Task: structure prediction
Amino acid sequence: MTTTLIIIAVAFAGVLFFLRTARGQAQRVRELPELEGLTRPVDLAAFRNLVDPDDEDYLRQNLPGEKFRDIQRQRMRAALDYAERTVHNASILLRLGEAARRNHDPEIAAAGCELANGALLLRMYAKLAVPILYARIVLPGAHLSVGCLIDMYETLTAGVVRLTSLLNPAYTARIAAII
Result:
């Protein structure tokens, strides 16, 4: 009986940990202007370049081994920074999506639901990408990819733009620039 209770308690703690990790600790966001100052910009072109396997192969072929490893470690540290920004932004956008999901307009509520679901998925994937990037810093020659994280972030950004255009079309370009 005691073993069963311990297993249930550990499972419950694991579920709570998973939910807390997935949702994050972001501040509540109810309005679009609140996003300014909360998000951290992600340069998707630079991020994509840092994790591009073709660029890595080019560097590997054209640089001496030690120089390649040094440069690849620097590239992965920069990519890690972008991944951590992605984790942070996804938790904030999750809150925005949750707030929009409670809107009385069904189109805004649907866009909010889509944004919240996408942000949750992106946050979990980005959380998994962080240890992969750490591994690539330690082992610069490892072939571990996080490229679809960028595609997911682009999709989420499009969702934010869609929601913004529904809530306040004049604010769309401004929001797209800070994400």
Observations:
- The chain has one domain: 2-178.
- DSSP finds seven helices and no strands in the chain.
